[in-house]
Write a structure and sequence with these properties.
The chain is α/β, with parallel strands linked by helices. Helix content is about 30%, strand content about 20%. It has three domains: about 240 residues, 3-Layer(aba) Sandwich (Rossmann fold); about 55 residues; about 70 residues, no CATH class. The strands form three sheets. A nine-stranded mixed beta sheet has the order 3-2-1-4-5-7-6-8-9. A hairpin with a 2-residue loop joins strand 8 and strand 9. The chain starts with 5 loop residues before the first helix and ends with a strand.
Length: about 375
């Protein structure tokens, strides 16, 4: 009998949801294995593309439904077996450091026949007869060593389909087996343009977070956030586009920078005042020099509402108002002090109370919303 070529086998299996893993994708799958394994296993190994990328010294194991495909494998340290992986597990008593797989997408299987099998009986539900995707995932999980890793190429439907598959996916997340989910765009395979995904499994995770990846976009998501999304694992839910990300208000950043600057300035002035007092000299020349610098920047920026803003809108640094000539002018009843936010109001109110000034909150002034303190009493 004439042996079939890889090309003919690929054509024959295309209609059965079986697609051969390109070398570039095989290398990408291997990149998620962050250690050098002693053993690697592929439960649906095809012609061995996923096993070929591992070092020659690594012991490789694979099972394949089609004997003709298995016969084409020529890689060092390989032990192969023919047969249906789900129905007839040829490596049932073995655990592996690393498992890589590209199982057939959404093929049929018989859950009733295997419901008492130890690979599947631990699951809260059995995958539906029409879709064996999660059956392969359960098989892979069963064969992982305690410190092992599995990298599985799957059809994206396993990330969001409900009913039985939703229960199994929830069980995987709650037991902290899902380490990473990677979106693989369409046209990755020569045989089809469908999009796929990579799911990385681990049994020894340090955290309960799951990493989602799509190209250069990466996001670490908590188990609680996944729970809030009904245990859906579709990366697009957790990876926002750049223009969808929350914008940082530049006014907030600027105000924070001004606040920090004023903290430093006040400390410098306190120190200079102390030195001047010790030396018996006046600090006024230095203050006048600062004012000359400030006069160069009299044009004030506006916030979004058009209200004028100034670094002196932060009252905690000015318990007394200053005239343009620099003379102190005590606060009087009815005066208002602009605050940045509610916290500023509280802090400023406490500071003023120490100075004998009683104030009350004011949330609207001259028809504008904001935060102010209004002076109600001033101790002489």
């Amino acid at each position: 009998m004439k042996q079939k070529s890889i090309k003919n086998i690929r054509k024959e299996f295309k209609d059965n949801g079986i697609f051969y893993t390109p070398e570039k994708l095989a290398e990408k799958i291997k990149s998620y294995v962050d250690f050098e394994p002693e053993t690697v296993y592929d439960p649906t190994c095809g012609v061995g593309n996923l096993l070929k990328v591992f070092h020659a010294n690594v012991k490789k194991y694979g099972q394949e439904l089609d004997e003709e495909q298995l016969a084409l494998i020529d890689i060092p340290n390989f032990t192969g077996a023919a047969g249906d992986t789900l129905k007839d597990d040829k490596f049932k008593h073995m655990k592996f450091d690393c498992i890589v797989a590209n199982p057939p997408f959404s093929v049929k299987w018989d859950p009733e026949e295997l419901k008492n099998d130890g690979r599947f009986s631990c699951s809260p539900a059995l995958p539906p007869p029409s879709k064996a995707d999660w059956a392969f995932m359960l098989h892979i999980l069963h064969h992982m060593s305690d410190n092992g890793v599995a990298v599985v190429l799957e059809f994206p439907g396993i990330l969001y389909r409900g009913q039985r598959e939703g229960k199994i996916r929830k069980w995987f997340v709650e037991n902290n087996y899902i380490d990473r989910v990677v979106n693989i765009p369409g046209n990755t395979f020569e045989d089809t343009s469908i999009a796929t995904c990579i799911v990385v499994l681990r049994k020894n995770k340090i955290t309960t977070d799951v990493l989602f990846e799509d190209g250069e976009r990466v996001e670490v998501v908590s188990c609680e956030a996944i729970k809030e999304n009904n245990f859906t694992l579709t990366p697009s839910i957790y990876l926002l586009e750049e223009n969808e990300k929350e914008e940082i208000d530049p006014c907030i950043l600027e105000n924070e920078a001004r606040r920090n600057f004023l903290h430093r300035l006040k400390k410098e002035l306190d120190f200079d005042k102390m030195v001047c007092e010790l030396q018996g000299i006046s600090i006024k020349p230095f203050i006048s020099a600062i004012k000359r610098v400030l006069r160069e920047y009299e044009t004030k920026p506006c916030d979004r509402s058009g209200q004028q803003m100034s670094i002196f809108d932060f009252p905690e640094y000015l318990p007394e108002r200053k005239t343009q000539e620099g003379m102190n002018m005590k606060l009087s009843i009815g005066d208002t002090i602009k605050c940045a936010d509610k916290e500023d109001c509280v802090n400023m109110m406490l500071e003023l109370a120490k100075e004998g000034v009683e104030t009350d909150f004011l949330y609207e002034k001259d028809g504008k919303k904001g935060f102010w303190l209004e002076v109600e009493k001033v101790e002489e």
